[in-house]
Amino acid sequence: MVLLIKLVVFDLDNVIIDGEAIDEIGKLANVEEDIAEITEKAMQGEIDFETSIKDRVQLLEGTSIEDIENLADELPLMPGACKTIKCLKDKDIDVAIISGSFDVVAEKVQEKLGVDTVYTNSFTVEDGKLTGEVTGPLVSGSKLDVLKDHVEEAGIALEDVVAVGDGANDISMIESAGCGIAFNAKDSVKEIADVVVEEKDLCKVLCEILNQLTTDEAESEPVEDEKVEEAAEEEATEEAEEAPKEEFVLADTMEGVRKQKDEKEAEIAKVADEREEFNKEAREQRKIRDELNASLKENLNKAIEFRNERNEINKQVEEAKKARNEANAKIKNLEWNSGKRNKIKIENEIKKIDKIIETRVLDIKKENQLVKNANDLRKQLMEIHEDEAAKGEAEELKKVSEEEHGKVIELSEKAQAAHEEMLKYFRKTDDIRTAADEAHKNFIEARRNASEKHEEFKAILSDIHVINKKLGSNKPKRRKSDNKGSSGANKNREEKQRAEEIFEKFKQGGKVSTEEILLLQKYNIG
Fold first, then answer.
1. What is the pLDDT of residue 385?
2. How many other β-carbons are positioned within 10 Å of the β-carbon of residue 424?
3. What mean pLDDT value characterizes the chain?
4. Annotation marks residue 11 as catalytic
5. pLDDT per position as a tens digit, 87-127
6. Which of 112, 147, 514, 518 is deepest in the core (most CB within 10 A)?
7. How many domains does one find in the chain?
8. What are phi and psi of 469, to 5 degrees?
9. So what's the pLDDT on residue 105?
10. Cβ(38)–Cβ(55) below 8 Å
């Protein structure tokens, strides 16, 4: 996947500004400790953001909005904020802020830095005072919801977005963006981010973004590998010149200096190859991770499809149950109204009396009374005539009840089958997620190793810069891996041949220029 960065999204608090705005506002209301405690729980993901923001704003009830506006002017920007935003804008990359903080702060920052768009919450104000209520898209909605709306309106894809954040409520957009950067973040954010920046300097974030651009351009246009490498070396040269370090100790003789240069050239070529291997591994692991995540998404969609199918079938099951139960209720009602219920009741009473007479020893008076009661019930039974129409309707309803019950059985089996398929795909997504997490860890490790090698590269390049100044060369010679062709070797042979021709000219009394003398010294001729 090639990342064409079109948008960089930042959180506001502790990312663009150096601090938590609501904590600072809390000092105005003398509730900073209570607010800071809630803020920390929210950042760690211990409580949901909606609860935390409402609880914190409630504590600010009665605070002057004018005092908050004055405070917003004084909030410090994060080191590197101005340079980072300017550089991104110079590269025609849009910049947005998506924050659960407040417009009274974000709009001040937007004016100072030239940020394109801000999405925040708002205090409710009456008579110049906070009411303790808060409104906005990020009270109950997630940052990913807001980001999705923005990219859809802008006509870009989430894969073209870099998201930078530090807290639990940033996870959704960091996970979904093409590149997610954890900036001085909580552990839960670092675990899911593509890049982790520990220093409180947004220029480090900028370097990662530019590195991402360079890396992906190299992946998509392998023909330009040498140009990319040259640009990287030029950037490293500038950094090496600017970075303060101990001065490299030169050898006492020019021959010794040239030997030092050869050693440093060999060393930097080795480090460059090692750095490239780590970058290659990072690209491979990122590709594996992205492919696994794509597969995870497909399997998750399948699981959701089967879940939706199961739920739809369960709705049909409920409808069939309802139809069956309604038919059964009508049958009972018909039996009651048609006299059948009374007939059954009387028959049961007669059976009960007959059993008593047959099984018990009774005095003649009591036995006669029971016989009389049974005969009276038989007379009532003879007078009852069951409604034939109602009887027919009841039979039809019984058929309906049986059909609906059959549907309940059949649909329940289908729902169970869909449920089993859903569970199968959910289990599969868990396995894929585990593999994707492992690939992501490997990606982070390879990137970290590549960064360390890059620091070694810069240090060696700085030494070479000192050597070149001594030798009178302003630019180090091009370093290439052995597997990148033989153009360097050809050039060396040509230079050595020219040096030998210069030496022959010198022996015959010809004049030799300073440049030619340096060439003779380089190949130790004469």
1. 60
2. 14
3. 83
4. yes
5. 999 888 999 999 999 999 999 999 999 999 999 999 999 99
6. 147
7. 2
8. -60, -40
9. 94
10. yes
Distance CA 63, CA 99 (A): 21
Q: Using CA atoms, how far apart are residues 457 and 460, in angstroms rounded to an integer? A: 5
Does residue 238 belong to any structural domain of this protein?
Answer: no
φ, ψ for residue 7, nearest 5 deg? -150, 135
233-268 tens-digit pLDDT: 554 555 445 544 567 889 999 999 899 989 988 998
| DSSP code for 92 | T
Q: Which residue has the tokens 């979904």?
A: 176
Q: pTM here?
A: 0.45
How far apart are alpha carbons 231 and 485 in whole angstroms? 19
Q: How far apart are the first and last CA of the chain?
A: 56
Give the span between the Cα atoms of 34 and 443, in whole angstroms: 40
Sheet holding 94-102, edge to edge: 129-135, 117-126, 94-102, 7-10, 161-165, 179-183, 195-197
**Last residue of a domain, which of 163, 180, 212?**
212
Phi, psi of 14 (to 5 degrees): 65, 10
CA–CA distances in Å: residue 426 to residues 125, 302, 421, 439, 522:
47, 9, 9, 20, 67
What is the reported pLDDT for 408? 92
The answer to the question of residue 501 being in a domain is: yes
CA pair distance 169, 42, nearest whole angstrom: 8
H or E element at residue 32: helix 32-43
* Assigned domain for 425 exists: no
Structural domain harbouring 492? 486-522
Query: What pLDDT is attached to residue 205?
Result: 93
The Cα–Cα gap between 493 and 504 comes to: 17
Picking from 148, 180, 212, the residue at the C-terminal end of a domain is: 212
Please report, for residues 144, 190, 433, the alpha-carbon distance to residue 296 in angstroms, rounded to integers and kept in the order given: 19, 21, 7
Residue 452 φ/ψ, nearest 5 degrees: -65, -40
- Does the annotation mark 431 as catalytic? no
The verdict on residue 359 lying in a domain is no
Q: Which residues of the chain have pLDDT under 70?
A: 1-3, 45, 212-246, 335-341, 384-389, 473-493, 506-514, 521-524, 526
The residue from 11, 166, 194, 463 that is catalytic is: 11
Euclidean distance between CA atoms 173 and 132, whole angstroms: 28
Q: Spell out the residues 6+ positions from residue 110 whose beta carbon is closer than 8 angstroms to its own.
A: 97, 118
